[in-house]
Amino acid sequence: MGNVTKRIAKTSVALAVLCGARRYYRNWGATKVECQMRLPGDALVADPAVQTTEALYIDAQSSAVWHWLLQMDGPGRVHPQSEQLAVGDAVPQGWMGLPDALALSVAEIVSEKYIVLTTAGGDSRWNVVWSFHLQPHWEDRVRLLTRARIALRHPGEVFAMEMARPIVALGTRGLLLGIKHRVERLPSEQSLSGVKCVDRQRV
User: Fold this and answer.
1) Confidence (pTM)
2) CA–CA–CA angle 165, 170, 175 (5° rounding)
């Protein structure tokens, strides 16, 4: 009985750790209020099997964040044409590091406020909505939120999705941090360029 009790105890601890980690990576950086609030695009997947909300602060104006949000493509690449996205447009392949197999189109977009993406057409294996939201805090700070809502068609897919979620969460977090670092570094880069120009003129 002693060994059985120890195994049960170890299993319970492992499940508790996994449950805590699951809550953490599913809503990385987001508050309880942000996780529960209704956001544009939520209605496109009314009863999701999976919902995640991730967020962070960026010390910059909304316009600067919006510019990089639309152009980011994985680690450091950009899609300038993304600045022209409109409702109904297909998202460029590879945008935001998306796998080419996941075809998304713009469902809603309001400049410097939010963009809502959804799986294009009815042939997608999963019904997905992925949205990004800018919430200004004064003139020089922005809260950037991203939410994913996924409706799965087969029960077995839930387990597969849960197994993949830590990797997806790390990728999304890296994307948000990449935008943050680029936007916050921009003023210093511009200042540095200005100093270099002045030095060249003096020489």
Assistant:
1) 0.74
2) 125
pLDDT in tens, 157-193: 666 666 556 666 777 888 888 889 989 987 655 434 4
CATH class of 25-191: alpha beta
pLDDT in tens, 50-59: 889 999 999 9
User: Residue 18 is encoded by which pair of tokens?
Assistant: 């996994």
Could you give the CA distance from residue 88 to residue 105 in angstroms, rounded to a whole number? 6
User: What does the angle CA 114 – CA 116 – CA 120 come to, to the nearest 5 degrees?
Assistant: 160
- C-alpha torsion 55→118→149→164, nearest 10: -90
- For the chain, domain boundaries: 25-191
What confidence tens digit (pLDDT) does each residue in 101-155 have?
677 889 999 999 999 999 865 555 678 899 999 999 888 899 999 999 988 766 6
Contact yes or no for 39/133 (Cβ under 8 A): yes
Written as one string, the DSSP assignment of 72-107 is: EETTTEE-GGGGG--TTPBPPTTGGG--TTS-EEEE
Q: What are phi and psi of 49, to 5 degrees?
A: -80, -30
